[in-house]
Structures are given as C-alpha cells and as structure tokens.
Amino acid sequence: MTILSFFTRASRAFNGYPASSKLLLLCTLSLSGGGVVAYSEAQVDASKTSVQVNEKDCKKKRVVVLGTGWAGISFLKDLDVSAYDVQVVSPRNYFAFTPLLPSVTCGTIEARSIVEPVRNIIKKRNGEIQFWEAECMKIDAANKKLFCRYTVENNLVGNDEFSLEYDYLVIAVGAQVNTFNTPGVLENCFFLKEVEDAQKIRRRVIDCFEKAVLPGLSEEERRINLHFVIVGGGPTGVEFAAELHDFVQEDLINLYPSVKDLVKITVIQSGDHILNMFDERISSFAEQKFRRDGIEVQTGSRVISVSDKEITMKLKAKGEICSVPHGLVVWSTGVETRPFVKDFMGQIGQANRRVLATDEWLRVKGCEDVYALGDCATINQRKVMEDIAAIFKAADKDNSGFLTVEEFKDVIDDILERYPQVEHYLKSKHLRDVTDLMKDSEGNYIDKVDIEGFKLALCQADSQVKNLPATAQVAAQQGAYLSKCFNRKYKWKDNPEGPRRFRGSGRHQFHPFQYKHLGQFAPLGGEQAAAELPGDWVSMGRSTQWLWYSVYASKQVSWRTRVLVVSDWTRRFIFGRDSSRI
C-alpha cells in the first residue's frame, strides 16, 4: 500500500464524523414573512488531502450560474453546494438591493448600504462556490461551453478571456434598458438599472443646481437647467420623481434659495395613467398626490427623440409634436434582452422571440440542462386546450366517452397545478367549485359531459394566461424554487412529486413553478406610499410608508446591509440628505 492510498483511505474513514461547526442565526422581521435563517460554517478537516478533494470534485456535476442579481443569489443561497461543483460568473462582484436605487439617487440611502459583496455570501458556504468577475460574451449550446471576458479596464497583466464548460447552466443575467431605438436616448439620457446609474444621477442633480446659481445666467437658462424629466410612469419612474421632489423641497431649496421657484419635475407617460399595472385606486391616488406636489404628469405622450438640450415628443390626443428643454432626462420605460442571450436564442431556435422562453420548470425550451430565471426569461405556459383530448382520455377511466363529476374531481388537482390559468379562470368567473364548470349550453348542471362539453367548459381558461412581471419578487422566488429542484434532482428521479403527465405515463419529476404574489409598493414621497397587498387589499398613506420601511429593511440580504439601511434612514430624518458631489 502506498502512502498516498493510505492517507486517502484514512481520510475516508474519518469522513463520517462531523466536523466542528458554528451556527449563525439570522432573524429577520416577521412582517414580511421573514424567519430564521441558519448558516453552518464548517471548519475544514486538515487531514483531508487535495487528492481526495479533486477526486470528489471530479464526480460532481458542474453548475455555472450567470449573474448575481435577485435570481442568481436566491438560487445560490439555498443550493446544496456539497452536491455540485458551483461556479458563478458576473461582471458585478456584489448583490444590489435594486428596489432602493431611487433612494440612492438623492442621498436618502448611500450606495454601499444596499450592496453585499458576492464573496461575503460565498464565504458563508464554506468556500465551495467559485466566483469569477467577468462578463459572459457567448454561450456555445452545442458544446456546453461559455466564453467570458474580464471587462474592467486596467493595465493588469494576463489574458482577460477564458472559457468554462458546464453540465448545468443557470442564466440569471437580468435585462438591459429598452430604448425602443429612440434617437438620442443612449447618448443623452440617464438610466436607473444599476448602482452606478443611481450615482451618476445623484451627481447630475447636484450639477444642475450648482450650474443654475452661477452668476451671468438668465432666468430662462436657470429654468432649463432645473427642469428634470422622467420618461416612464412605472414604479421606478414614479418613485424617482417622488424621491427627487422630497430632495428638492426638504434639502436643496434651503441650500439654493435663489432658485427655489424655478425647479420643475415632469413625468412623461405614453399610457393614459401612471402606475397602470397597479389597482386604479392607487393610480388615481398617485396622480392626485403629484398634482398637489406640483409634479407635472403628461400622459398620452410618446418620446420620439432626445438631444442634449431638448426632448421631443408626440401628443397622441392632438397628434402634435412638441419639444421641451431639459437639464436632466431619466429614461425608465422597460427592459429588453441582452445581446449574448439573443445570440443564444438564435442557436436554439428562439430567434423570433423577444425574450428567452422556458417551460413551467424554468428549463429553456430547445436546450437541455439550461435554465433561465428573472428578467431575462419568460415562462411559456402550456395551453390547456392543447392537451384537452389527452386530459379527457386520462380522466375517462371506464372509457365510456363521458366524464362524470367524480371522474372530473379525480384529475382536477393535477389540472389546476399543470395549468394554473384554469384556477385564474375560476376566480375571474367567481366560480366556487370546479363542478360549476359542469353545465350545459343553457347553464344547467349536468351529471356528465362528453368531449365537446368538456372543451366548452375549459375553452376560455387559456385567456387567463399572463406573463409574470419583471420584478425582484418574481426573480427571487424563481431562484429559491430552482435551488430546491436541484437539491432533490436525484432523490426524486425515481419518485416524482409533480402533477400527472396527461401526454404519456407517470408524473412530472417536480411541481411546476408557481408564483405567489406578496404585494407591491409605490412610495409617493412626503412620507406617503401606496401598496397592493395579498387578498386584493389596497393601502395608501403614511401608515403604508412605515410598512414599506419595515418590509424593505427585513428583506435585506444580510444584517450588515440591514443595519446600514436603517441607519441611513435615521440619519436622513435627523440631519437631512447629503448634497456633496462625490
């Protein structure tokens, strides 16, 4: 027996004994559904040789994660990293709490208070995750290989490009700003997608005020410099407008009193209302609040070009084209797919789609062992009418050609799980039970239906298929869901837990992803906010703002950022916002 084999066997013999470990209990606020999170940081047994580690790693499947946003970090946080060789590639070496970016633009919160270094998160997983600060330039789907590049500009030696092979690929890179090919947007507008964007806006706002108070400028020039335009009336645009208004009224007019009456904030929205994805009561409340605050809201206006001096738009109602001078334009109108993802879509037969399509298990369609989460992908929900004949055949156990109420009940749970639009349809029609679908053309209850009657009962269900919104909440839930699937991938291979396969035999290996909406907020400034809460509840006013504080504090990724964010809010209440140009 060689010395090497002796140490290898000895280390395996001792491998069954637990290493000393320490537990760090992290308690989050219960208000947002937080709970207790436990991390075990096991100390590495010094007797383990590098040979054993290498042998173990060779047996592991390699999982490469692209992105360190909401979806990527949620996936990594819950993944059993001992079962996989996990590698992460992202041009950002930190996770950013993006819902608070509008607060960073005005100094309400400091930029470093909402970011957590990725390597801090990795450290809590015993260092079993490797991180590469680089950008994925191309995915070679045929050979399961990624081509990456270190994109930080510097004069450091060494090659900036490298490649990685993968067994499983998780694409969680988010999306980029959609300019809709509007001339001048890339050159003359500011965006609000990254921490760096918020910092640029903060400096520009201060620049506008400093330039406006210089001697020798006319009043018209001062007005132009202090005209702030936000394109897009969604949650990000509205929250930034509210933050900017508070910054001006609570801090800047005291520092620049000579121009306090020259400041103007305009929100341009192509639709008929701002916050049109919210309940109409919230949309109306926000518009009234902005009107009282002096924030101009121009609805029904489409921007057709932006220059360094003016923004040109078309008024839909009149068909007129007008130009408005500006000092700052923030573009917040939606997102689109990143270039390397578009290239990947072309390789797998999705070139004609705008967004990468996955199935209900977040698996990319047309490419094996690749998953996509968050803003970069959309779930292509299968239509119930595509499988209606197979569903009827599976439910008709006696092959009578008719489906009884009892037979229908036997498969309804699988139908509701596999086709969630059926449940949405029942709610939209205020139907209390699935048996309410068992009616004839005149609306009378019947004991059994044939295939045509079954089609009639479910023919309108597919109209309730809706794409999930591109929000942090969706991405985080998808990341947590996929990590659970990976943790049980081999355990449930022979004992599937998912719904029945209507086309074929057996059951699906896992339950499909189901999004649970936990509500959404819209801060409106002046210590007021609006919220849509589960159960069709709507809340507006000052109490909702304090609910917003509680939820966003509890949702921070670490105790470090939680303490920093709360201390920033406290500092702002006591000392106001910092107007330094740093």
Automatic annotation (TrEMBL):
Its cofactor is FAD. InterPro entries: EF-hand-dom_pair, EF_Hand_1_Ca_BS, EF_hand_dom, FAD/NAD-bd_sf, FAD/NAD-binding_dom, NDH-2, NDH2-like_C. Residues 1-38 form the signal peptide. Its EC number is 1.6.5.9. It catalyses: a ubiquinone + NADH + H(+) = a ubiquinol + NAD(+); a quinone + NADH + H(+) = a quinol + NAD(+). One of its GO terms (molecular function) is oxidoreductase activity. It is a peripheral membrane protein. Its main location: mitochondrion. It is found in: Mitochondrion inner membrane; Peroxisome. It comes from the Eukaryota. The keyword Membrane applies. Keywords: Calcium, FAD, Flavoprotein, Membrane, Mitochondrion, Mitochondrion inner membrane, NAD, Oxidoreductase, Peroxisome, Signal, Transit peptide. GO terms for cellular component: mitochondrial inner membrane; mitochondrion; peroxisome. Residues 383-418 form the EF-hand domain. PANTHER family: EXTERNAL ALTERNATIVE NAD(P)H-UBIQUINONE OXIDOREDUCTASE B1, MITOCHONDRIAL, NADH DEHYDROGENASE. Belongs to the NADH dehydrogenase family. This is NADH:ubiquinone reductase (non-electrogenic). It comes from Gossypium hirsutum. The lineage of its organism: Eukaryota, Viridiplantae, Streptophyta, Embryophyta, Tracheophyta.
